[in-house]
Amino acid sequence: MRRSALTVALTLTCLSPVAVGELGYEVFEVPFPPDETSPVAVQGGMAEGNLSFVGVGDPVDRGTPYYDSVRKLWRWQGGWTQFDLSGDGDWIARKHIRGCSATGYVAGEYGGYNKAMGWHVTAGSATARQLPVSTTEYSGAVAVNVHGLMTGYTDKSEHRRAFAYDWQTNSATLIPHLDFDGDGVAHLMVGRAVNNHGVVAGIVSDDGRHAFVWSEADGVSDLLPEGGTDDIYDINDTGYVALSYNGSVHLKQIGGELINTHLYSGGGSVGINDGGWVVGSAAAYSNQPALYRDGELDPIEDLLVGGGAGYDQIYVKDINQRGEILAAAQPSGSSGHYVNLLLLPVTGQNVVANTSFDDATGLNFGGGGSGEVVTDPADASNSCVEMTTGSPVYVEQTVDTPNGSFEIAFDYRFLDAGGTLDVHINDELLESLGPAVAADPDWVSHGFLVTDEALYDLPGATLKVTLDHPGSGQRVLLDNLELRVVDEIPEPATLALLAGAAWVPLVRRKRR
After folding, report:
1. I need a surface site. Which of 53, 161, 222, 316 has the fewest CB within 10 A?
2. Do 153 and 164 form a contact (C-beta atoms < 8 A)?
3. Helix H or strand E segment including 6
């Protein structure tokens, strides 16, 4: 048995190859509205039927710097609805900070005058308010929680203050200034993030840059007394703040240790969920996007079913409580063209008894050719199945399918051109690969989701992989066959809409 990229990444987290809780990600291209790009946040739990609000960027250049970062709010509910949030539809959501909540509250700025604004989006409309935080220009709201508590900054001067605005009472509180240099004057204080318990995290430029946290109950505190904070990215509901310190993303609670995730913002953003999972970029992996969880750092590419095949570059944007990651990617061979991706977590138990083909236990070979367990010609320490056509030839074994969506994944290698590989459960054709145009120089991994409810909860079902060709003597190698439970993904009907009424092909990259 060889280890796939997915298995290797999971080994780093001390999980066995078939343990419940293994993590992978399916890749779906999200059909954002035409001519809209750069998603900034994914909110809500789609499987529970909640609305999912996403801020997306408008690429139209209006000839003025005030509109360079114009954002619009869209809601996905079987189709896209755009909300004009400020009369003319213009608002600005701050980079690195979620500007919208799953409950439809939005934090931003109004047009070119940069006045702090808030909105509450309901099923049919959006209510707008200019926040009572400043009489000058250049105030802004940059983050909001599910209760409508917003934070941001009051003006553009060096005496800028952070605020907490409560939508329910339509009142604002100026966060007390932490005076580090002793001059009694507030200096460039900005609220950057707020969690659902009303804790605000921000930054103040006073005798160096310091991170602070504030709540109505506990007041304001210096989060990192030694200073040196470059930026605040996010705060989760357990009180962990994701901040930039000495060039990388660290996690910090009041009174807690400083935890280095070895991430940085890179070309995308930094997001954290309540489980302490953080997404960003990692210098250790050639500045590629990575996921930090449970003290381990995994390249996103290694967690993808398909290994990110078809994309030259992926930029992560955000992660929500369900572990869903929003990203943008450049398709392979394209120039300056990006698509938006939703990465959906796949965890669960592999129910295939003989996955590794170390021997023929539980395997049934049949058809017009031959099949057997052999030594991998490229790796004498590995065993695999070899099938040779006298057409068709198959290998099958008995499985109990789960009562819900599942993934089938395997490694294959066509040793000759022309063959076709088909996957069945009972008599239902699920997937067909080929015909092979040439022999594969290396192993290829493939995975796909099964969402047909007629195939759920079938005890003693037959999982069959068939090699077919009009002639004889065509060969294929097969290894690492898995049927894995899929936990906590959106309902199939929702995903079918989300993926443009079709699943995105999930062809894994070739082995390196």
Report:
1. 222
2. no
3. helix 5-11
* 430 φ/ψ sector (left φ>0, alpha ψ -120 to 50, else beta): alpha
**At 107, phi and psi to the nearest 5?**
-115, 135
CATH number for the segment(s) 364-487? 2.60.120.260
Amino acid at 154: T
Every domain of the chain and the residues it spans: 364-487
User: What would the DSSP string read from start to end of 193-239?
Assistant: EE-TTS-EEEEEESSSEEEEEEETTTEEEES-TT--EEEEEEE-TTS
Q: What are the pLDDT digits (tens) for 323-382?
A: 888 787 878 877 766 677 778 777 667 788 898 899 999 999 999 899 999 999 988 889
Q: How far apart are CA 135 and CA 132, in angstroms?
A: 8
Task: Round to the nearest angstrom and report the end-to-end CA distance of the chain.
Answer: 16
What is the DSSP pairing of strand 393-399 with strand 475-485?
unpaired
Q: How far is CA 228 from CA 205, 243, 245, 459, in A?
A: 10, 10, 6, 59
- According to DSSP, residue 317 is labeled E
The Cα 352–Cα 334 span in angstroms is: 39
